Structure to design on (614 residues):
């Protein structure tokens, strides 16, 4: 009997090794990695170990369903994204008139087989990883849930913010009064009343710019006004990032790791680059992260914080900044409210958060009234076409690649833009070439929005693959993890039309200058430095959400809910297939993502919830 068992064991090990080797030959092309021994042998070893782990360490029956559903769903979605990434041809995504060069190569039967193989492989790898993570995941004693800062920490907050600002100062001095883009000039033009107010660039953001410019003009310089804007933004970002570091320390992260996070915020070039940029994204993005911190604190306290006025004030202010600084903010707020309600209902503390629910609902209703009838009454223009970017792209791709469109829909789309122009202006990764084309009829679109949606819906049913391809090509940068080239994307700042000031239609007395006087410093403090790809960060965040689910700490996902809400708005209405500034919030949240398992190692999320710092 022992000889038979030994033979079976050897046979099983041989099968594991053979299967692992075959899988390791199949997987690399879908990771967009060349097959070579340096890839195949480590991958074979990993898969072999995972097969043995799967056989030797079985999961308790009570956890089996949760683990299977969660891991398989995550693996299936990740597999789909890897397959899509393999088919995207980046060379053609931002070129017009390229119908002969399909930016998305056709899916084949081999891809369906790959989907099954990748899903299986990722599932066993994740299963093995989580068995290790959750085995080593031990509780630690948490005496209270610090939210905000104790009196002793105010000095730490100020010191941290001071270090960050000092580290960012070279960028400010070299690119004084800050980076001004085409978008910035639209807001400046409205702020100086050379053009009527519009909400395409959020009105309250424009009013904030106007306030800074007026102060500068009061002292005789529009350039000074731009510098005041930059200084205020730098201070806001620095203090908020310093607050995040203090929050991490309150949650048990060591002083050494917190100092490392401070070093990252101070020295990684993407942070000072955005700090001196006159874009709405920096203030919006760092506030999204702060708002997520407030939500997870609410969950960890099981709703106790909803009775503390300082907490409610912080929550409300951050929510208002999110909604008034970018037009997708209100949808992030709605999504966050639903997720918070779901968490509260499941954990049975929904009655404790009535104040939070009322405040959110009041804010949402007020914002819809403000941006709807009140703005209309005040004749503040709106540009709804931004929200229809992906449907426009999907219909454009259907036309360009001879999709199934009837004559009536053809005629309707020809009134939007002459049919022969669709092929000439269609850019798979950017809708601007369509909506800003001189022959595109915005007036017709505004008058026929409902008809446009009906045309879009009819053709969705008839052309699902064209729509899917178009959606992938319109959003890939935010969710595809295997486009490794995007980790070397260096034009995040310079893509913003940084030279627009010299060619603007109104001469503006803004004088950029290098206050340090040495132009060689622009290569040291460069504006063209690479960033981590947003798609990788999205999946890192999704991985942490999966970890929280499997470790039965799903309330921790509230930290990422606003970030996920921002991603969902991009999936539905991304202006560009990839522009890292749209996911800047995820960059600010990198320390929270990486350290998430450490500060969530809490036994029942804390013992004593009465010790709350206000």
């Amino acid at each position: 009997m022992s000889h038979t068992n030994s033979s079976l064991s050897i046979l099983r090990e041989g099968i594991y090794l053979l299967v692992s080797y075959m899988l390791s030959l199949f997987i690399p092309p879908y990771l967009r990695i060349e097959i070579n021994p340096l890839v195949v042998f480590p991958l074979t070893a990993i898969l072999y170990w995972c097969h043995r782990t799967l056989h030797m360490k079985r999961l308790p029956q009570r956890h089996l369903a949760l683990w299977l559903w969660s891991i398989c769903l995550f693996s299936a979605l990740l597999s789909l994204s890897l397959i899509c990434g393999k088919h995207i041809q980046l060379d053609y995504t931002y070129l017009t008139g390229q119908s002969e060069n399909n930016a998305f190569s056709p899916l084949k039967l081999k891809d369906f087989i790959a989907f099954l193989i990748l899903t299986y492989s990722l599932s066993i790898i994740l299963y093995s990883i989580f068995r290790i993570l959750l085995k080593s995941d031990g509780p630690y004693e948490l005496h209270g849930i610090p939210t905000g800062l104790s009196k002793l920490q105010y000095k730490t907050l100020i010191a941290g913010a001071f270090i960050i600002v000092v580290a960012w100062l070279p960028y400010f001095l070299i690119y004084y009064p800050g980076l001004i883009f085409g978008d910035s000039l639209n807001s400046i033009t409205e702020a100086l009343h050379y053009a009527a107010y519009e909400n395409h660039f959020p009105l309250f953001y424009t009013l904030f710019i106007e306030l800074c410019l007026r102060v500068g003009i009061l002292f005789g310089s529009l350039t000074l006004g731009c510098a005041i804007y930059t200084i205020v933004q730098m201070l806001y970002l620095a203090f908020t990032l310093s607050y995040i570091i203090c929050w991490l320390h309150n949650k048990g992260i060591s002083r050494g790791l917190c100092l490392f996070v401070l070093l990252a915020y101070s020295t990684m070039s993407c942070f000072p680059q955005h700090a001196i940029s006159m874009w709405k994204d920096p203030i919006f993005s760092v506030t999204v992260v702060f708002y997520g911190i407030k939500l997870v604190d609410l969950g960890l306290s099981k709703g106790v914080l909803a009775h503390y006025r300082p907490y409610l004030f912080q929550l409300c202010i951050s929510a208002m900044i999110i909604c008034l600084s970018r037009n997708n903010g209100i949808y992030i707020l709605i999504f966050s409210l639903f997720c918070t309600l779901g968490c509260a209902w499941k954990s049975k503390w929904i009655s404790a958060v009535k104040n939070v629910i009322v405040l959110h609902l009041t804010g949402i209703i007020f914002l819809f009234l403000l941006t709807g009838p009140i703005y209309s009454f005040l004749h503040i223009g709106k540009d709804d076409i931004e929200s229809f970017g992906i449907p426009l792209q999907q219909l454009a791709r259907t036309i360009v690649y001879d999709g199934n469109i009837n004559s009536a829909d053809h005629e309707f789309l020809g009134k939007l833009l002459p049919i022969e122009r669709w092929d000439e202006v269609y850019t798979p990764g950017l809708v601007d070439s369509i909506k800003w084309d001189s022959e595109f009829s915005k007036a017709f679109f505004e008058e026929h929005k409902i008809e446009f949606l009906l045309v879009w819906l009819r053709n969705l049913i008839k052309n699902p693959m064209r729509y899917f391809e178009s959606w992938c090509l319109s959003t890939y940068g935010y969710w595809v993890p295997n486009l490794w080239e995007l980790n070397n994307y260096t034009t995040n700042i310079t893509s913003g039309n940084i030279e627009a000031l010299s060619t603007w239609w109104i001469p503006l007395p803004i004088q950029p200058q290098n206050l340090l006087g040495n132009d060689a410093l622009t290569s040291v403090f460069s504006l063209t430095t690479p960033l981590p790809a947003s798609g990788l960060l999205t999946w890192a965040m999704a991985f942490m959400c999966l970890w929280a689910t499997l470790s039965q700490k799903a309330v921790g996902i509230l930290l990422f809910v606003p970030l996920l809400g921002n991603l969902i708005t991009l999936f539905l209405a991304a202006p560009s297939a990839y522009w890292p500034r749209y996911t800047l919030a995820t960059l600010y949240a990198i320390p929270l993502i990486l350290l998430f398992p450490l500060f969530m190692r809490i036994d029942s999320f804390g013992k004593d919830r009465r010790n709350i710092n206000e």
Q: What stands out?
A: Residues 138-145, 603-614 have pLDDT under 50 and may be disordered. Residues 537 and 590 are 8 Å apart (CA to CA). Residues 222-250 form the longest helix (29 residues). The two ends are 68 Å apart (CA to CA).
